[in-house]
UniProtKB/TrEMBL annotation:
Belongs to the FAD-binding oxidoreductase/transferase type 4 family. Gene3D superfamilies: 3.30.465.10, 3.30.70.2190, 3.30.70.2740, Uridine Diphospho-n-acetylenolpyruvylglucosamine Reductase, domain 2, Vanillyl-alcohol Oxidase, Chain A, domain 4. Coiled coil: none annotated. It comes from Methylobacterium crusticola. Residues 40-221 form the FAD-binding PCMH-type domain. This is FAD-linked oxidoreductase. Keywords: FAD, Flavoprotein. InterPro entries: FAD-bd_oxidored_4_C, FAD-bd_PCMH, FAD-bd_PCMH-like_sf, FAD-bd_PCMH_sub1, FAD-bd_PCMH_sub2, FAD-linked_Oxase-like_C, FAD-oxidored/transferase_4, Oxid_FAD_bind_N. SUPFAM superfamilies: FAD-binding/transporter-associated domain-like, FAD-linked oxidases, C-terminal domain. It holds the Pfam family FAD_binding_4.
Amino acid sequence: MSRETTQALIERLGQRLGPAGLLTAESDVAPFAIDWRRLFPGRPACVARPGSTAEVAAVVRLCREAGAALVPQGGNTGLAGGAVPDGSGTQVVLSLARMTAIRGVDPVGLTLTAEAGCVLKVAQDAAAAAGRLLPVSFAAEGSALVGGVVATNAGGINVVRYGMTRGLVLGLEVVLADGEVVDGLRALRKDNAGYDWKQLFIGSEGTLGVVTAAVLRLAARPRHAATALLAVPDPAAALRLLTLAQEEVGDSIQAFELISGPSLGLVAKHAGLRSPIGEAGWSVLIEAASSLPGLRDAMEAVLATALERGDAVDGVLAESGRQAADLWALRESITESEAREGTSVKHDVSVPITAIPDFLEEAGRVLAAQAPGTRVNAFGHMGDGNIHYNVLIGPEHAAGTINRLVHGVVDRHAGSISAEHGIGQYRVDELVRHRHPAEIALARRIKAALDPDGLLNPGKVLARD
Ligand code: 2HG
Ligand code: ZN
């Protein structure tokens, strides 16, 4: 794209969106140009900030006419560089942050309809104000936007009970690559009429269309919660604890998180937070919630049995909401503490739940032998098989080599190289290595059908042609 074409496009965007809808000054576009970990710097031509679906459609059409690529961006909290532009200076960042409306909450039908720019926490609070639960939760929920949550099929801590975002989206409104608006904002539990096309856009990371609004499924809000932190001797004991908890408190388990000793070490060092049960090789944070009585007694029984069997060596059951929040603060501080510690290579992997202990043991062994000097910060959503197997490295280590070592172990356990964070630009090459050629070819056919000019977030998920 020539300089003149880019300049003409910026002018047209400015005319259509007005001053509130377009950022061009370097200092204004800077926050949109790089991810929060500052690993994927880019340089946008400008940042378009449409305030309505019609304006999103107009931006898409203008960019298409000019042959300019678009990079949709939500709260920019992603970990795979999926929402930031390349360094060409020709891509337009399409920020959804001005489309903040909650279009409706239905506490009987259990749905919430929100625009793409609504902050996830705001949507959660709106559901709570109606006495209901929006069951998608993760550390960045105060900044992440609904559109990004949907476009990345976000996971988080409650997947063990409520599934991924994909399962919570009942209806979707999207703008296609040619600027057409597809309104599928149906609030139906059952809808088997034709292709479920919305699934193509959920988790597509802005490469197939732009999500502008969604109808999300709500859940009943459990009246009682019980949160416990247990020190366990090893991951195999954590697995036995999961089975025990499933037997005793069943489907009221809404989080089952595994935390390694080094993770808690980083949190103590950088966030100044300490576990109330002291140092442990491994810990498990369990949260159960139910509206039926007796939950606390049942959780106490889980703790007692685990201690008796030696599957836990220590444990604490929160006495209050405040104490529960303190336990969660330990878990939610890991990512930022890791960032403060230095350079880390993230692996957002999943394996069959029963393979987690072997995966951890084997990955540790492989790194010790082939990448000495690296340090592992392993933690994650054990209840759904997702481990964040992050590796702290020094200047002598190459990130790509570490990726390949860890992902090799993932393959040996029939796992996935991204459980919830997505591919973005970070894992584009790894995706090709770890998926069958026929799967990549199918993905390319879908991309070609929906974005024939390759203008939607090029180079993300799939490498450019
Ligand atoms: C979490 O589970 C997030 O806290 C971030 O998915 C994980 O920092 C990470 O690797
Ligand atoms: Zn996670």
